[in-house]
Specification:
Blueprint lengths: L2 H20 L6 H39 L5 H29 L10 E7 L3 H22 L2 E11 L2 E10 L3 H5 L4 E7 L10 E11 L13 E6 L15 E6 L4 E5 L5 H28 L15 E6 L4 E4 L4 E3 L2 H5 L4 H22 L1
Parallel strand pairs: 4-9
Antiparallel strand pairs: 1-3, 1-5, 2-3, 4-5, 6-7, 7-8, 9-10, 10-11
Helix pairs in contact: 1-2, 2-3
């Protein structure tokens, strides 16, 4: 199907939806909601198509004016300048339509579960994991998102073994989904007397938050253990069996939660994380089945893939997937410069999808 045919079909469907919603033909509230969402989702691309059609009509009129030898010379010159400007804008407008036509990731608008774990590198890896967790917390605040810490396993001196958080807001998963993978740091540890640069790492996982309806978990598949919390946490630590460990037997996934004083709250948080991990596994399985072009994607989301290096002595951050290096490590660690990296990753992902679509 040609692009023009595809666009005509979209416009026809959009006008059908508009007429249906404007009439009183839809009595079922659920069906009305479904049609309203389809209409709303189509609106941006229809507006882009109509903008291109309007620009093409203006181009035609201007070309006629420029070709008219009887028209005033000054008017023809003005028309020529406007014609050149529109010719420059049109390819970008057409490109935007192609981007809008790309299949949407159905999880892009979901909230997310963020998990950060210290990797190789001992105490320095734990300190870096804490830096990353704080970076995402600040980034979320800058976006106006809600950042709720689910668990925080601290090891002392400001380091963490692992931490997780729920991040809620508009388009959270779409902005953070390329953060999954191994983040490597190169810096001189504060405890290093000789001033040698150490390399350590932390693992980041960003999971689309799953709802009860997305993943059905059979209670028979769960082994739930309760025990006394340990580590930082206040007076309740080691006094009540409030900590919860849930093992999903079929997958082997284990989730622990001990930050809340209430066993019930810890279990609820653990189930939230478990659902999201199971949903992510299913999502990745389907993605692998759908796509034979994973090599063309920005990143597989594999937690073992090294995606980024933070070099403190040189003040640079390098994302290896897109060969992007920025010399603004302080801004990035404060959550303010992360947008620039995410924008490049998003654009690269769109470009690879457009290339794949052109091959089909």
């Amino acid at each position: 199907m040609s692009l023009a045919t595809k666009l005509d079909k979209i416009l026809t469907r959009y006008h059908e939806l508009r007429d249906t919603l404007a009439s009183s033909d839809v009595s079922d509230a659920k069906e009305f909601g479904r049609l309203s969402k389809e209409f709303s989702d189509m609106t941006p691309i229809v507006e882009a198509i109509e903008a291109v059609k309007k620009t093409e009509a203006e181009l035609h009129d201007l070309e006629v004016m420029v070709a008219d030898k009887e028209m005033d010379t000054e008017m023809r010159e003005m028309a020529k300048m406007e014609l050149d400007a529109l010719k420059t804008r049109l390819p970008d407008m057409e490109h935007q339509i192609k981007v809008l036509l790309l299949p949407k990731d159905e999880d892009d608008e979901r909230n997310a579960i963020l998990e950060v774990r210290a990797g190789t590198g001992g105490e320095e890896a734990g300190l870096f994991a804490a830096n990353l967790f704080r970076m995402y917390q600040r980034f979320a605040a800058n976006q106006g998102w809600k950042f709720e810490v689910l668990s925080l396993n601290e090891t002392g001196l400001g380091a963490i073994k692992e931490a997780s958080a729920s991040i809620a807001g508009k388009g959270v998963f779409s902005r953070l989904k390329f953060e999954s993978g191994v983040h490597r740091v190169q810096r001189v540890p504060e405890t290093e007397a000789s001033g040698r640069i150490h390399t350590s790492a932390a693992t980041v996982a960003v999971l689309p938050e799953a709802e009860d309806v997305d993943i059905q978990i059979d209670e028979k598949d769960l082994q739930i253990d309760v025990y006394r919390a340990s580590g930082a946490g206040g007076q309740h630590v080691n006094t009540t069996d409030s900590a919860v460990r849930i093992t999903h037997i079929p997958s082997g996934i284990v989730v622990t939660q001990q930050d809340e004083r209430s066993q019930h709250k810890n279990r609820a948080k653990a189930m939230k994380v478990l659902r999201s991990r199971l949903y992510e596994e299913e999502r990745r399985r389907k993605e692998m089945e759908r796509s034979a072009h994973r090599r063309s994607q920005v990143g597989s989301g594999d937690r073992s893939e090294r995606i980024r290096t933070y070099n403190f002595p040189q003040g640079r951050v390098t994302d290896h997937r897109v060969n992007l290096t920025l010399y603004k490590i302080d801004l990035i660690m404060e959550g303010e410069g992360l947008d620039e990296i995410i924008d490049v990753l998003t654009a690269e992902d769109q470009a690879s999808k457009l290339a794949a679509a052109a091959e089909d």
